[in-house]
């Protein structure tokens, strides 16, 4: 078999292994789905009236209007949760003796990591579909057409995939599983410090600068535009792609290095 | 005879501590080498280096014709490793674990299924094949662990303390499996803290202490230096005398007994030599970091400092 074919076959095997883990032990998946759903309910039903009234053009039906505004932010909170799951998952796996076995076998060196990242991406899409479903039940009526939905799915898959690479590297670099669960907390904060819950224009100057510069704002704005049936602005689209590429490159290089170095 | 493993001057340091100090090892294809040493001698480190998990700080090795440093993937495709601690996926069933190995060895779906069924049968795991590993006993996990190593029919198998912590029956089973592997022409590199085990299964024994080889030879050569048995005598007041290695002949025993002041003796008995005795014979010292678990499976021994 050629190198690429071997890598693909071994990654597929590891991917199946990760899916089996998720099916057998759905605890982490339930946790990953639960947090964004809870936040969605909280923000719409508790804060929605007030926050919705503060939106530009807000007024009547404020909480429904806020629902439409906050869903993309919640989706990205979901992505951050996926990062958390990815980091915990790989850290747990590294404590298992079987990884030493993998390292002593003639399998593609990236396969174990690929399996985790792909498994997490699938888990992520599932989680995001459920969050969107809850949004729809609450009365969210996105204007997206079939094409926009397709682009949105591909876009969210890419974001999950790229963040998972960074999270997997973070998990690899942690000495304990607890430490691995702390690292990606940064990702959970970013939607709050971006355009996830309120427009960045309503923030104090220094925070606004940070909110506009960080990756989650273009992610959220791109998702928001697609859900509204609009084309994302070129700036948000490009910045999203640039951030994703950067995350993949950084996460991949970092995780691979740690995987090679990690002593048994 | 071809050489399966040839290692020269393998050296490894951890934070200034020299764990392996210029170790040379040669294993002929189709034979069993036992690396014998107490806890902390460097056995696991040697296994990890030879199985490509850890890079040596110095030295070279050729394994199944592949250079350890330049062609690690070649080495990996020829070896199987069963480490000191079970390397199984605890979240999967026994069968799924074996299937995972079959897939990673690219056996193909039909050949893979067949090999898995065969190994489940051979290792007496068919009944529990579909049960999660949490329900497995320690011995069952060890058997599965070894079965996973064998899925890809490796030419060289590393077994790091394969019988430590096993009950006598499982230990017997393990030795039988080693013999079966030998019949199939597999080369085996095993580590052990038990002289008895090295004696029973190995063609050659290498004794490791503090990362240095302190003796090597066939089990009978080693025993010739250690004595086949040890005479234990105690005085009338209950104090134990220094133990005396003997060669196992009646003449040898008589000569030794004649030299002792018989009137003072209360008891005299014979026991098989332990790892401690080997070290005493080879280095004049007891093993540097002997642990409780280092006691031989059959007999425990204490040697008087003298
Ligand atoms: N990764 C490591 N970092 C630091 N020291 C280590 C490491 N691995 C082994 N050692 C040290 O090397 C010595 C030999 O260990 P090991 O090879 O496990 O011995 P054995 O298997 O014979 O019991 C011990 O003193 C151990 O503490
Ligand atoms: Mg060891």
Structure description:
The complex is a heterodimer of chains A (264) and B (306). Chain A is mostly helical. Chain A has one domain (3-263). Chain A has helices spanning 3-24, 27-46, 48-54, 62-95, 98-103, 111-137, 146-173, 177-182, 185-189, 205-213, 216-227, 234-261. Chain B has a 6-stranded mixed β-sheet with strand order 6-7-8-3-9-10, with helices on both faces. Chain B has 10 helices and 13 strands. In chain B, strand 4 (58-63) and strand 5 (66-67) form a beta hairpin. The N and C termini of chain B lie far apart (44 Å). In chain B, helix 8 packs across helix 10. The longest helix of chain B has 16 residues, at 168-183. The A-B interface holds A 1, 6, 9-10, 13, 16-17, 20-21, 24-25, 96-98, 100-107, 111, 263-264 and B 48, 51-54, 73-74, 76-77, 79, 81, 83, 85-92, 96, 100, 103-106, 132, 148-149, 152. Residues 43-44, 84, 160-161 of chain B line the site of magnesium ion (MG).
Could you say what the CATH topology of the largest domain in chain B is called? Rossmann fold
Rg of chain B is: 22 Å
Number of helices of chain A: 12
Structural class of chain A: mainly alpha
Largest interface: A-B, 25 and 30 residues
Q: How many separate domains make up the residues of chain B?
A: 2
The largest pleated sheet of chain A is described as: none
Quaternary structure type: heterodimer
Mean pLDDT of chain B: 86
CATH class of the largest domain in chain B: Alpha Beta
The helix fraction of chain B, in percent, is 25-40%
- Gross morphology of chain A is elongated
Helix and strand composition category of chain B: alpha/beta
The CATH homologous superfamily of the largest domain in chain B corresponds to P-loop containing nucleotide triphosphate hydrolases
Q: Sheet bearing the most strands of chain B, described?
A: 6 strands, mixed
Written as H for each helix and E for each strand, in order along the chain, the element string of chain B is EEEHEEHEHHHEHEHEEHEEHEH
Distance between the termini of chain B: 44 Å
Number of strands of chain A: 0
